[in-house]
Amino acid sequence: MSTTKGRRGEDAACAWLVQHGHRILARNVRLARGELDIVARDNESLLFIEVKAHRSRDSALLAVTADKCRRLRQAAELWLARHPQYASLQCRFDLIMLTPARERTGRFHIEHIKDIIR
User: Fold this and answer.
1) pTM here?
2) pLDDT score at 81
């Protein structure tokens, strides 16, 4: 994925999250064991959100491999160690998939899947 496409996708995901009552705490956090696309908070949970902008829903889902989930979990642990004020919150790993909208407007169809790692 190109950097421009990835940034547009993450921008759209952040805007969608804010519209739905979430607060963005961090973006594009690079840690020794991985990267976190978005760290957000809703009323009761801390969300570690992976963003996938793909041509199809299937390819976006296939990109979330077991290894990717392991790296997300490790990165989240490191992030929490650096931000202990959030340690009491319930943590959740979500996926936001962005696929091209049917009506070629340059916009995305956004699908939010909660709790992708258990």
Assistant:
1) 0.89
2) 95
